[in-house]
Amino acid sequence: MSSSFNYSSLSRNHYLADYMYERLAKQIDEFEKNLPSNKQSGIIVNGYNGTILVDDIGYHNPDLIFIYGSGSNGEDIQILQHVSQVNLFLVAVERPSPEKPRRKIGFSSSSQD
Fold first, then answer.
1. Would the pTM count as exceeding 0.90?
2. 64-78 mean pLDDT
């Protein structure tokens, strides 16, 4: 007797971090499409006095979002945020190395479930 499981009956859980990660990556990508080549995405978050240059984003299911970047003084920054508390302000900032291609955010991250 063989049994088969109908995977098409499963629906996506929109409350998990991987879904938030995909939405954030898409929003950042859309934001950057309208920027001149000498600009990139920066974010402003509560608790940090300055703009953070976004290098990448990631997630860990069920509920953590990671944002990797550098601060206005060049310091490395990693933000860990619960999916229910993600609140980012996207801003256009000067790219530190405009001769290099702008990095696509959110698609080279090694995230975990």
1. no
2. 92
